[in-house]
Design a protein that fits this description.
Helix content: 25-40%
CATH class: Alpha Beta
Number of helices: 5
Distance between the termini: 36 Å
Number of domains: 1
CATH architecture: Alpha-Beta Complex
Largest sheet: 5 strands, mixed
Structural class: alpha+beta
CATH topology: YbaK protein
Number of strands: 10
CATH superfamily: YbaK/aminoacyl-tRNA synthetase-associated domain
Order of helices and strands: HEHEEEHEHEEEHEE
């Protein structure tokens, strides 16, 4: 099992490799969940982006990491299910997410994901000037331009991946 310190270091290295300016934001783990984080640290929800792992419930199980703004809802049973070509999909459990990514819910990020894991980014994310993403643990967030996502492995920008709440 990867420690929080190891995953945070891997995330920081991945962000550095983008070559884009960024800010590492230490966070009280009790305020890592989106709504609490945005309120406590005065980050607009439309600038907060969540990375959510989804699993196709067929064998072999297939996973995808999806990035959506906090002001939207991932279209799991529509867009994601169709793109995965699966009859049943669901959010990966906290245990599955930790096993797959080494990250805890509330800290999951696109930076330092395992090689070969597809990453789908809702096109609305790319319209923001900056976004705040998880930092690999519940103690770290990363503020960066959405352009940092374009150069990551296995990333695809998807129109209509999420719906406005």
């Amino acid at each position: 099992m990867t420690t929080d310190e190891e995953i945070e270091a891997a995330v920081r290295e991945a962000v550095e490799r983008t070559g884009l300016p960024h800010e590492a934001m230490p966070v009280d783990p009790d305020f890592a969940d989106t709504a609490a984080f945005c309120e406590r640290y005065r980050v607009a929800p439309e600038d907060s982006a969540n990375t959510i792992v989804v699993v196709a419930k067929t064998e072999p199980r297939r996973y995808v990491a999806c990035v959506v703004l906090a002001t939207t809802r991932l279209d799991v049973n529509g867009a994601v299910r169709r793109r995965l070509g699966a009859r049943k999909v669901s959010f990966a459990s906290a245990d599955e997410t930790r096993e797959l990514t080494g990250m805890l819910i509330g800290g999951v990020t696109v930076f330092a994901l395992p090689a070969g894991l597809p990453v789908w980014v809702d096109d609305a994310v790319m319209e923001r000037e900056t976004i705040v993403l998880g930092g690999g643990s519940r103690s770290l967030k990363i503020r960066v331009s959405p352009d940092a996502l374009r150069g990551l492995p296995d990333v695809e920008i998807v129109t209509g991946l999420a719906n406005t709440i």
